[in-house]
Design brief:
Number of helices: 10
Shape: globular
Oligomer: single chain
Largest sheet: 7 strands, antiparallel
Order of helices and strands: HHHEEHHEEEHHHEEEHHE
């Protein structure tokens, strides 16, 4: 597993926090989020501002600058752009929240969501790193990875028994999708399908909602989601 670099992690943490704040974030808020002194965060923030990746608005909050938007816009075939048509179709047909999850080493983060049309729904927090376990998307990565360090990390950080993890991985491979029944949030079920770009696992599309609506129809909903993804020209990860 790649070792994190403290400076890089600090810069990435600043950018990820700012993008998660609709109205931007103040220097104090950024420092509090990173649990670091304002004096140490100040240089990073001003450096990112000088490079055009952050911009201070009239309210004194930092938002994404032109440099960041230019970099993102250059990716004409970004994951979000590729996945949105399928996600929109899935959301329309199933009526539940559909989310795009990307993997960051031994973590997962949600980068795009199509909200549910239901009054009562599941709305995951966006742009926030979270452990792979027990998310349905994280289980997809664990079931596709051959990296023993990844499993070791999950076993250690989550205090899991090896047999529990291996049994769940076997189930994901047999079913073809990741499943989370009330493990992350009470009364919420979610399933995830691996999204392939070329021959690689690029991300996961998840569908989540209240148990009462999800659990009786999981298999049917999975089939609907698979069809929508295939019809959009993308491929679902095949464990067979």
């Amino acid at each position: 597993m790649v070792t994190k670099h403290r400076t890089v992690s600090r810069v990435v943490g600043i950018l990820e926090y700012v993008v998660s704040c609709p109205n931007g974030a103040s220097l104090s808020e950024i420092a509090e989020h990173l649990d670091a002194p304002k004096s140490s965060v100040y240089g990073f923030v001003r450096g990112l501002e000088a490079e055009g990746y952050l911009k201070e608005n009239t309210a004194g909050h930092f938002v994404f600058g032109l440099g960041a938007h230019t970099l993102l816009a250059s990716q004409a075939t970004s994951l979000v752009e590729l996945a949105t048509p399928a996600m929109t179709t899935i959301g329309s047909e199933l009526g539940e929240t559909v989310t795009l999850a990307v993997f960051l080493d031994h973590e997962v983060t949600y980068v795009h969501s199509v909200p549910s049309s239901q009054r009562i729904s599941y709305n995951p927090e966006m742009y926030t790193r979270r452990p792979l376990w027990p998310t349905s998307a994280g289980k997809i990565l664990l079931a596709t990875s051959e990296n023993p360090e990844l499993k070791t990390h999950v076993l250690t950080s989550e205090n899991l028994k090896a047999e529990t993890l291996e049994a769940e991985i076997a189930s994901v491979r047999q079913r073809g999708y990741g499943l989370n029944i009330s493990e992350t949030a009470a009364d919420v079920s979610a399933f995830a399908l691996g999204l392939m770009i070329g021959s690689s696992l690029a991300a996961a599309i998840t569908v989540g909602g209240p148990n009462v609506r999800m659990r009786p129809h999981i298999e049917e909903m999975v089939n609907t989601a698979c069809s929508a993804i295939s019809n959009s020209g993308l491929d679902v990860w095949d464990f067979t």
